[in-house]
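ENTRY TYPE: paired fold submission
RECORD: A
CONTENT: sequence, then structure tokens
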Amino acid sequence: MVYEILGNVPQGYVHKQRKVWSAGLVTAPSLVLKLYDMYVDGTPPHDIAFIRQSKEFLKKEIRQGKIEPYLGLGFVILSEDMLNVARWDTKYPVVIKNQIYGYGQGLLGAPDLDTAKPLDIRSEGAFCIWELGIVNHEKNAWKRYLKSKRSEADKMQYLDSVIEGPL
């Protein structure tokens, strides 16, 4: 095997550490999502106004039937240009169903959800390596829930279990 043609990262790629903090819950009658704000280490997280706007955007998409609730629990990862919405599947509760929205920047370089549009995970990918740190935490929290009696208290324990800090 000739390895010199494999794994050659594009010239100019700079690998930047990410951090995450929990931005609360997005609640709708059929779905509750944990919202994570993921950002480049050394830069500030998204401001509270944008977090609020993200929650309203997600609620609107849920109301309009554009986000399937599946089991009704999951999480969202907000990054510098995407919203990754992950829900636990109804038929196979060990499977994450995710969909991604891409968004651009508006005036003065601020993130703008008015530009948000669904992206195809077949071309964009399901999760980046940083998001996988969050997914791993969520996997473990979900496994604990599945092993529990799945009571209301167990659901709340799942929703209260979040990851924060470096990824």
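RECORD: B
CONTENT: sequence, then structure tokens
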Amino acid sequence: MTATTTIPLEGIMTFLNSMSLSAQNKRWLGEHLIEQAAKEESMADDAPHTKRVAKVKRRANSPSDEELERRMTNPAPARFPETDISCSEIKGIIDANSGRLIKGLERWL
């Protein structure tokens, strides 16, 4: 296993510029760096990718996958109460449950 060290790239450039390298030496170094990077990238592409598997805990009363699929493909129609409720009845229900009417609802009722 190869240990990697993090060095700021600007520091490397400063170091290389402080050396008296000819243009030919700089070109050689650049070509070899590019070649090495291409090898590392191809090795990373060839490496098998690990697949993450989610672990699911099923509750005791939860439906099976088949049951959920059946429910989603044939949903039951929504049932609404057939009786009309007046605004005063809604206000009475809200007052009975909370003791006071919510300010946002006062405007509607």
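NOTES ON RECORD B: The mean pLDDT is 76. Helices lie at 9-18, 23-46, 65-73, 87-98, 103-106.
STATUS: closed
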